[in-house]
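Hmm, how's this folded?
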Amino acid sequence: MVHEGTSEQVLQEQKVQEYMKKIYQMVIDRNPNEEEFHQAVKVILNSLIPIYVKDQTYMDKGILEQLLEPERVITFRVPWVDDEGKVQVNRGFRVQFNSALGPYKGGLRFHPSVNLSIVKFLGLQQIFKNSLTGQPIGGGKGGADFDPKGKSDGEIMRFCQSFMTELSRHIGPDVDIPAGDIGVGAKEIGYMFGQYKKIRGSFEAGVLTGKGLGYGGSLARKEATGYGTVYFVQEMLKDHGMSLDKSTVVVSGSGNVSIYAMEKAIKLGAKVVACSDSNGYIYDKNGIDLDTVKQLKEVDCGRISEYIETHPGAEYVEECTGIWSIPCDIALPCATQNEISERDANLLVANGVKAVAEGANMPSTSEAIEVFLKNNILFGPAKAVNAGGVAVSSLEMAQNSMRMAWSFEEVDAKLHEIMQTIYQNCVQASEEFNRPGNLVVGANIAGFQKVADAMVAQGVV
């Protein structure tokens, strides 16, 4: 869209738009059939038009041409033996995307859907997310098409050991520091850390984050992404004369992010009425009993449908996507990518939603985001909203380096401050580049500018 201005400004904007189209086509040509990666790139390119209009340097230096091409992509086979004695083979990935601000940092995802497109889209998002935290970390991501569901502890352990045997060649406390993501929790991190320690013959605590508290983990890491999501929402609402108190909230998912987003929202006075898993969702008009959800998901490893066995007043509905039909003040998509479609977004708007904040990575389609922005819904994009997890991972690295541990309250206070700063920086960037209220543009520009300036300063590397 061309904004009003001088003829020179209009021409410059047209020039930048053509440049962005050229860059996008280059990405598609170089990375065919990688739809998730294409989607992430498109949103970023559209958001960066204002900063490219203002500063020609980034175009002259070929920053996007470099930024959108990973510094290194590693794929490898992961052979392991199941409980029947049969050899299984999965595919592992690590994309070391950008190290302008520090060593690569990003999670590992174990899920059947994992492929190169998924890992690259997550890695690209991670560059901007990590930049927004203000911590000295670059962007990376990894994982495998292994499904931990239905596997025994022995099978998970043997898979993790095989995975780390190869990955260990490419990571290190000052090189690349993986963490957990979907399908990778403290158990999996523990198995991988043990294998890394055995291979290296040394205790390098800073090589992985999300570790157990007994061997270098950080308090508040489990809660960080969910808490951070709500801290961002709290700032966004406060800025517009609203609060979480007495608000009705719908949260998709029932994993780590969802559970602790619900916990913090409830502590701040909100009523969470729905959550989900991959099979369906529960609606409890009296407010979700979080203790029951925690028991089901963190202890029993059960399904969310079991909630109604102890709460007969609640409803369970098959098909998790229907959760967005529930009227609410605040929607927190915390499950997976592209879970909110254009239709879902229109339904949320029609039902009076006031704010949407992305606790998961890219949970709203591009069309859904347009619906929210056009209807002046407060919208917090994933790379800003869910940055709390990696922020506390970076704090875990700091504690490992100092050979000390901070209290839960100390880490939580630092997390709260980081999320406040992220929100303020996004708002400031959106206003500086004449897109007030558009935090998608604000987050992308604020994250990009820091990385791009570091890349310019370091030259072509």
In short: The chain has 17 helices and twelve strands. The mean pLDDT is 96. The chain has three domains: 7-68, 72-203, 222-385. The domain at 222-385 is CATH 3.40.50.720 (Rossmann fold).
